[in-house]
Automatic annotation (TrEMBL):
The lineage of its organism: Bacteria, Bacillati, Bacillota, Bacilli, Bacillales. The gene is xpt. Pfam families: Pribosyltran. It is found in: Cytoplasm. Converts the preformed base xanthine, a product of nucleic acid breakdown, to xanthosine 5'-monophosphate (XMP), so it can be reused for RNA or DNA synthesis. This is Xanthine phosphoribosyltransferase. 5-phospho-alpha-D-ribose 1-diphosphate binds at residues 128-132. One of its GO terms (molecular function) is xanthine phosphoribosyltransferase activity. Keywords: Cytoplasm, Glycosyltransferase, Purine salvage, Transferase.
Length: 194
């Protein structure tokens, strides 16, 4: 998605060879028009699939899952990272190791909102090591739902996330794929000369 790549080039802060900060339009302040365009792009990429639900993980996947849900005219559900006192029903849970926070936490979804008969599109902001998305894939399988695919806003293609998901037979679409980066320099997958 050229528009997204341009924003990353203009406003992305490359903190190291592995960490990109996009807080001005994606992860802290959110460009609402861009978020809605991202949702429409996911809907276009997975057109023809009878998706019944979009699934993400709190917090930074929520705006893109909502945008995709609007474009597909289906609800979205976000997995919770902390067990609130209000989460009293039976849960699906999976452990996730966070790349940015360097800790392992449990993600949970109420069994009321996902089950056999659902056709699920998983959406998230970043695909890095794939741990978060593998956790969600495991939950979809546990629920007996069907996984249509995974849509990521930004993929760091030099990390193992995509291959981990593809090994599990998951269809992955990312809107911006970073081949490599270092402070002051970024290359997208399409940029690499053949
Ligand atoms: P993963 O499980 O694929 O390693 O990454 C999970 C989450 O870590 C992503 O959903 C995202 O919130 C965060 N993350 C991973 N890498 C980056 C990065 O380079 N920049 C930002 N802003 N978040 C990241």
């Amino acid at each position: 998605m050229k528009l997204l790549e341009e924003r990353i080039r203009q406003e992305g802060l490359i903190l190291s060879d592995t960490v990109l900060k996009v807080d001005s339009f994606l992860n802290h302040q959110v460009d609402t028009k861009l978020a809605l365009a991202i949702g429409r792009e996911f809907a276009r990429l997975f057109a023809g699939e009878p998706i019944t639900k979009v699934l993400t993980i709190e917090a930074s996947g929520i705006q893109f899952a909502m945008a995709a849900g609007i474009a597909l005219d289906v609800p979205f559900v976000y997995a919770k990272k902390k067990k609130a006192v209000t989460l009293t029903e039976k849960l699906y849970s999976a452990p996730v190791h966070s790349f940015t926070r360097q800790e392992t936490y449990q993600v949970s979804i109420s069994q009321k909102y996902l089950g056999p008969g659902d056709k699920v599109l998983i959406v998230d902001d970043f695909l890095a090591t794939g741990a978060a998305l593998v956790g969600l894939v495991d939950i979809v399988n546990e629920a007996g739902a069907e996984l249509v695919g995974v849509g990521c806003v930004i993929e760091k293609s030099f990390q193992e996330g995509r291959s981990l998901l593809e090994q599990k037979g998951v269809r992955v679409h990312s809107l911006a794929r970073i081949a490599s980066m270092s402070p002051g320099e970024i290359h997208f997958v399409e940029d690499i000369p053949l």
